[in-house]
Design a protein that fits this description.
This protein has helices at about 5-35, 40-60, 70-90, 95-115, 140-165, 165-175, 180-185, 190-210, 220-235, 240-260, 270-280, and strands spanning about 120-125, 130-135, 140, 215. The chain is mainly alpha-helical and about 290 residues long. One of its GO terms (cellular component) is plasma membrane. Belongs to the binding-protein-dependent transport system permease family. LivHM subfamily.
């Protein structure tokens, strides 16, 4: 039986890890909310961002957190270009085609990374990777504390963009009624690309937060996106608030499961909660009822 102090530390650290999971899920749910499709290239884009953080550290000597100033705009540009000039034209607006195009793009990116970097894992050595923050008697991982703060700031910035800017209003208009939005002069293709750009920028932030404590190889993103898919469905497809709350919940559940069942079975709790929520509320915690 674990002491209450150990349990509290595990749950708080899980909450902070869940914030980074939520960042990965935010981009996925935003794209679904506007385009109503699942972006299968999301994991490959996360891997690209993580390699970008590693290159900024190894070639330019940039701290992973500082590298956000390069990686976030670079990922936004990549997301915009991919949707505007590859995914959109290749799919010709058909949802089924978009799924296939994003899946094909994912395979191309993964194999391109494999050719460039081989299958070796890359890590970043920082002074603060194993530092802790003392919160009374609790010891919290410093990188996870930073991750929680950055995730909350990113969520607030995303909320401001979606609710207080013209671009955000256009995104919400296209998500609600694409034809009506085009009739009032909104460039739907541009808004699709902007949505991809915002989702990819979130991945840039997530990559910078992950690299001090994780590794990267060409297939790394797939593991995180599997959890992100679970978070998106759990929180409600297309719900930004659901992605944030779902991510925090999943982080706590995973940490608790790892504590009681061991690291190898840490994710069993995630899927048990996932199944329970779908049985009780199939639309997810914050999804709109049909």
């Amino acid at each position: 039986m674990y002491s209450p102090l150990i349990v509290a530390e595990a749950l708080l650290n899980g909450l902070m890890l869940g914030a980074v999971y939520a960042l990965v899920a935010l981009g996925l749910t935003l794209v679904y909310g506007v385009l109503h499709i699942v972006n299968f290239a999301h994991g490959a884009f996360l891997t690209v961002a993580m390699f970008g953080v590693w290159l900024a550290w190894s070639q330019l000597g940039m701290d992973p957190y500082l590298s956000m100033i390069l990686i976030v705009p670079a990922m936004a540009a990549l997301g915009y270009a991919a949707q505007r000039w590859i995914i959109g034209p290749a799919s010709r607006g058909a949802d089924n085609s978009i799924l296939l195009v994003t899946l094909g793009l994912s395979i191309i990116i993964q194999n391109g990374l494999l050719a460039l970097f081989s299958s070796d894992t890359r890590t970043i050595d920082t002074d603060y990777a194993f530092q802790v923050v003392e919160l009374g008697p609790l010891l919290l991982s410093f990188p996870r504390v930073v991750g929680l703060g950055a995730a909350l700031v990113t969520a607030v910035v995303l909320w401001v963009i979606l609710n207080r800017t013209d671009v955000g209003r256009a995104i919400r208009a296209v998500a609600r009624e694409k034809l009506g939005a085009s009739l009032v002069g909104i460039d739907v293709g541009h808004i699709y690309a902007v949505t991809f750009a915002i989702g990819s920028a979130c991945l840039g932030v997530a990559a910078a937060l992950l690299m001090p404590v994780f590794y990267v190889e060409p297939n790394t993103g797939a593991a995180f996106v599997l959890v992100a898919f679970t978070i998106v469905v759990l929180g409600g497809m297309g719900s930004v608030v659901g992605a944030l709350v779902g991510g925090l919940l999943i982080g706590v559940v995973e940490s608790a499961s790892s504590l009681w069942f061991g690291d190898s079975l840490g994710q069993i709790g995630i899927f048990l909660i996932f199944i329970a929520v779908l049985l009780i509320r199939p639309t997810g915690l914050f999804g709109a009822r049909q």
